[in-house]
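Entry 12.
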Amino acid sequence: MISVGIESMNIFGGTAYINIDELSEFRQLDTTRSENLLMKEKTVSLPFEDPITFGVNAAKPIIDKLTETEKNQIGLVIACTESGIDFGKSITSYIHHYLALSKNCRFFEIKQACYSGTAGFQMAVNFILSQTAPGAKALVIATDISRFMVVEESEAINMAWSFAEPSSGAGAVALLVSDKPEIFEVDVGANGYYGHEVMDTCRPVPDSEAGDSDLSLMSYLDCCEQAFLAYKNKVRDIDYRTTFNYLAFHTPFGGMVRGAHRTIMRKMFKASADEIETDFLARVMPGLLYCQRVGNIMGGTIFLSLASTIENADFFSPMRIGLFSYGSGCCSEFYSGTVSPEGKEKLSGMQIKQGLDLRHRLSISEYEKVLQYSHCVKFGTRNVSLDREFIPGIMPDTNLSSPKLYLKEISEFHRRYVWE
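Predicted 3D structure (tokens):
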């Protein structure tokens, strides 16, 4: 069997962010609960940013490093999102166009809440394994945004937002999947699935979310345990504590990940509180560091955690990472793969941390202005022209970063973009 996995990988964490302590204080949230989020910053999607700009900006550095021959080997492009802009036209058509990929390419969009990124990745893995197009590559882009909107600056924020506002982020992850898994090699066939119908969180209308936070937590914990047990049932001699050097989780917020890890350690090994915390800091925390700076980016969060693990943990030899992916509604999967020191070095070349450092830090007043202006680009907007300087100085210094794609206007529903 051929090797398969991630050949190249990149994260785009947006143009602007807000400090979570400042936001929590402004919203007068319970500090005890807000501390459990384990959040520091969150990316804020600006009105001229959308799932297309995020996806293209994540993928462009990968594409630019390819030769023309390698670029033409991309025969499949999948956009994974719950932030689509049209009920019919796929955002992948825009992404494919602005990345200037070959027209001899299959592309489409899939949705399955926060599980979508894993769904797209596993579909790409099996496309490579099928060898129906030997030497082909697949580009998987998980891209999502959360837009909270207010009508007037003085309007009270709906309490349903509560702790979803400081944990919901925006961003995209791009994965080039091939038979040259230089960053992450998949353990082929080592997958555990678990899912059932549950109404935990959903998007009943395009620009807003709803749900039951307690039910969502219970469903997440249950799926984490059951998906791992399904994995263990398929793969011999598996031990949660010793098989995986590191663990990457879908991260709605850090406290939920800590709870899932604690539950498994208690149930399966009757580990003490000190043992659990030590293990959490060593094997799980490296994967939370980028999540703490970007927030929950839905389908891409599991790969944000994977990238964070690779960049922030030690890889002095090939090491195995266990991944838990969860999507509300719900579907979940536990799978695994290995990362080598060379893979860590290659990923560092994408300068993910430096990109996060370049974002504009929004003040509370600027953040409120973003929320008001975001009404201009609600789902189904027909015509609008956007001002990229509605907050002076918000655009990054182009001398320090490569050009990025931004939404310029919508004309008769057709979105037009510009490189800046």
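Annotation: The radius of gyration is 20 Å. Residues 213-234 form the longest helix (22 residues).
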